[in-house]
Amino acid sequence: MALDPLTAALDAGKTIIDKIWPDAGESERQKVQMALAIYAGQVEIVKAEAQSEHWIVAAWRPVLMLTFGGLIVARWLGWSAPNITEAEILKLWSIVEFGLGGYVVGRSVEKIVPAIAGALKK
Fold first, then answer.
1. What pLDDT sits at residue 2?
2. What is the Cα–Cα distance from 43 to 86, expressed in whole angstroms?
3. Domains of the chain: which residue ranges?
């Protein structure tokens, strides 16, 4: 079972596509189009937030990632509260990894979606 909503949606979509399109080639083509549509939607949300005229809407993701990153660095430097557990630190690290990964993937998808969509239409 997928832990994040995107992976869960992709897994469910792939299962449905496999049942609808028995042809392996067409099934794979539909899976790629579904994944591109989901990622393109996410990219549009992040772009809309970044271009917002309201500072808090445009900056909440970077501020949150900087905060979590700062907490990790503080722990490495020995400046954290004594009651913070290793599990909490690992969870913070996972959030930072997810946030950075989402940014990198989002930027990559933003650049390649038009090329892949154009190739699939041919």
1. 45
2. 33
3. 5-121
